[in-house]
Design goal:
This protein is mainly α and 406 residues long. It contains 20 helices and no strands. Helix 4 runs antiparallel to helix 5 and helix 11 packs antiparallel against helix 12. The longest helix is centred in the first third of the chain and has 24 residues.
């Protein structure tokens, strides 16, 4: 709130505790404009009322004011997020310069979503600055635009698409903090927005994300149902990467249930379809789905099926990742270590476990804790060895539960 109002946090607290409300009309008008408060909810006239009298239509003037406030908030949000979390300065996105097919608002939302995704993938969504900032941006900036868009005769479908992508990014960040209910709410909102945009590919992607999280939580039947829904939509789009993703989600769900035949059939389909992958036909929001990502899902599935040699092969392939996916690298390193522990190769498993634990100094994620705690349990048959004891000691220093501390 302090960032959006342009004042100090202590000042906000003082205003909240004040026995009487502030009366400086100039300041109140400025705050109302920054927060995009509808004029009819205020007891005083705001500055943009003057612009409305000069404008041919009051609605057009109000929207111009809201856009300026939106762009200003985007710049403030970028500042709050911090340069250490951003891939590069995003001033070009925040200026409102749009591509020929999208409005300035959509351009800004997509620029901010790219920044949030980069921060999430590189640092983990457990960082307080990332979590608070994306939630604030959604509530204070994206939601007012969506409400305004819904009231128009000609709705902007690109706005719905851009908002859906940001809600998906917010969902992954929520999951990284261990807030699964909020993650599900964000993904349900993303599904609704994708549907309103008539974008079946985005609908499929959101269902695939839901399936992924259900599998992570061990809800195999829900994971399968969601993956099947995603796959039906994906097939209608003809996007090979999306079809491959939804197939491998099915495979993981079936593996969790112990349905080997269905799982292997889904893996075969995922591999077959991925063979026709074309980056030119793949949406930008699906660019993360590459050979390394697919290999990691294969490794998870084979591990659940007990095919440890295959699981190890694909887990090693999953580490050939692009830069910037530090959280994913931590996940995949811990995955390979857990597979090696199951194969009774504790020495390399411990070496990889220490490597993954070192990564937690840069990545904050509840899900990384789950991966490493699982590794600790799989190493328990070798707990008497010095190497495993060293891993357990490092886990406890990082606040991760081990069989020794339970």
């Amino acid at each position: 709130m302090a960032v959006f109002l342009g004042i100090g946090q202590a000042r906000v607290s003082k205003l909240e505790r004040a026995s009487s409300p502030p009366s400086d009309l100039n300041r109140l008008r400025e705050w109302a404009e920054r927060l995009i408060i509808p004029p009819q909810l205020l007891w005083f006239k705001v500055n943009y009322a003057l612009e409305e009298s000069r404008s041919a239509t009051s609605q057009g003037s109000l929207e111009a004011m809201q856009r300026r406030s939106f762009l200003k908030a985007a710049s403030l949000t970028a500042t709050t997020l911090g340069t250490s979390f951003l891939p590069e300065p995003i001033s070009d996105s925040a200026t409102g310069t749009a591509s020929p097919n999208e409005s300035s608002d959509v351009s800004v939302i997509r620029g901010m979503t790219a920044a949030f995704r980069h921060a999430d993938n590189k640092h983990g969504g457990g960082h307080r600055a990332i979590r608070i900032t994306i939630d604030s941006f959604l509530k204070s900036n994206v939601q007012p635009l969506l409400h305004r868009n819904a009231s128009r005769a000609n709705e902007d479908f690109e706005l719905y698409r851009a908002a859906a992508e940001m809600y998906q990014a917010a969902a992954w960040i929520a999951y990284d903090t261990g807030n699964s209910p909020q993650g599900r709410r964000h993904l349900r909102e993303a599904v609704q927005l994708s549907d309103r945009a008539n974008d079946e590919s985005l609908v499929a992607e959101m269902f695939a994300a839901m399936s992924h999280q259900e599998a992570f939580s061990g809800s195999a039947e829900s994971a399968i149902d969601l993956a099947l829904s995603a796959h039906q939509s994906a097939k209608r789009t003809g996007i090979s990467a999306l079809c491959s993703e939804t197939s491998v989600m099915q495979a993981h769900g079936y593996a969790l249930l112990g349905e080997r035949r269905n799982s292997l059939a889904a893996l075969t389909e995922a591999e077959r379809v991925f063979g026709s992958y074309s980056s030119s036909q793949t949406p930008a929001w699906l660019s993360y789905f590459d050979e390394s990502y697919l290999a990691a899902k294969f490794a998870h599935t084979f591990r659940e099926l007990g095919q440890l040699d295959d699981a190890e092969l694909y887990a090693r392939r999953s580490l050939a990742m692009n830069e910037g996916y530090d959280r994913g690298r931590l996940f995949n390193t811990a995955l390979l270590a857990s597979i090696l522990a199951d194969k009774r190769q504790p020495e390399e498993a411990c070496t990889l476990g220490i490597k993954a634990l070192d990564m937690t100094q840069r990545v904050r994620s509840v899900r990384t804790v789950a991966y490493l705690a699982d590794l600790g349990n799989r190493l328990s048959p070798f707990r008497s060895t010095l190497q495993v004891q060293a891993v357990y000691e490092k886990m406890e220093q990082a606040g991760i539960s081990t069989p020794e501390s339970q």
